[in-house]
Amino acid sequence: MIVGLEYSEHHNDLKSIDIDRINHSRHSWIDVIQPTDKEKEVLAEKLNIPKEELERCLDPQENPSISDIEDYLKIIFQTPSMNGKSVETGSFCILLSHSKIITLRSERYQAIDSFHTEGHELLKAYLKSDPSFLLLKLLEHIVRQYNTLFNDVSEAIDKLESRVVQKPSKTTLNDILRVKKTLIYFQKSVHGNRDVLSGLEKMNSSHPKLKHWKNFRYLYQDVNQLYETISLHRDIMTGTIDIYTSAVSNNLNVIIKKMTAFGGLILVPTLITGIYGMNFEHMPEIMWTWGYAFALGLMVASVIVMTIYFKKNDWF
């Protein structure tokens, strides 16, 4: 699937274009989504892109990077995506020339799809200015998506911290590990994106295709701050796992204390029963009329005394 938008100075408006009718002198954005083999051949021919480079551009596992190919500045950037309850990341490719910005992706990413809905006037203003300005706004939009999803993860971490103390169950542990896995994906992805933005910022005005290079410096600072925050939350999750381990250990100790206390309640009456069950001939209480009641009373009294003692020492 290929979605093309072109800015016409004559009409001062955006129009949809077909790849076969692209005007290389006009500013345009071509979004390539899960292209077929035939569409890849058309792209390679019409946009002067080697087919093997197209294949690399469409690899969702490609590491973030910057390079030059033919007439384009090639940027591999990563974007977040939802997979059920988990947040994952994937790569897409941006090819930037003097007149065009081309995005290539082998999967549908919500962050890029939602950029299409920024509004007709905004997209027109971006392309009217320069393709590198649309690139800047697209990357800003993706960074906002990272922040939005990370805020959700941060809220989940706050809830897990409460649950891990109140109810350290296996479900809680699974949720902790799931969130930590998400943070690992986030940190690795944001680290790569940070390096890309650092590279774009360091290009300064030396690269002719980056007319808005100064703004990439501010975007780099935002991503760097996000990276440091993610690192902090990873440390928090590591501490949360330690708290979980301690809570489980404490709960086990409480259970053992209670079992020991209940065992103690049975131990003394059992001892009394054992003494009076020895059946020696000369036992004073054997012939005593109240001997049976005395033995029972002694057992009950021992249970009451031990119960009071255990409750006082918080064993029950």
Describe this structure in words.
Helix content is 60%, strand content 16%. The protein is of the alpha+beta class and 316 residues long. The protein folds into 2 domains: 2-248, Beta Polymerase, domain 2; 252-312, Magnesium transport protein CorA, transmembrane region (Methane Monooxygenase Hydroxylase, Chain G, domain 1), CATH 1.20.58.340. Helix 5 packs parallel to helix 7 (213-276).
List descriptors.
rod-shaped; Methane Monooxygenase Hydroxylase, Chain G, domain 1; alpha+beta; 7 strands; Beta Polymerase, domain 2; single chain; 8 helices; 16% strand; 7-stranded mixed β-sheet; 316 residues
Strand order of the largest sheet: 2-1-3-7-6-5-4
Question: How would you describe the shape?
Answer: rod-shaped
Number of strands: 7
Report the sheet-strand fraction.
15-25%
Overall mean confidence score, pLDDT:
78
Q: How much helix, percentage-wise, in residues? A: 55-70%
Question: Biggest sheet: strands, sense, closure?
Answer: 7 strands, mixed
Q: End-to-end span in angstroms?
A: 68 Å
Low-confidence stretches: none
Secondary-structure element string: EEEHHEEEEHHHHHH
CATH homologous superfamily grouping of the largest domain:
CorA soluble domain-like
- CATH topology name of the largest domain: Beta Polymerase, domain 2
Q: What's the Cα radius of gyration?
A: 35 Å
Instruction: Give the total of domains.
Output: 2
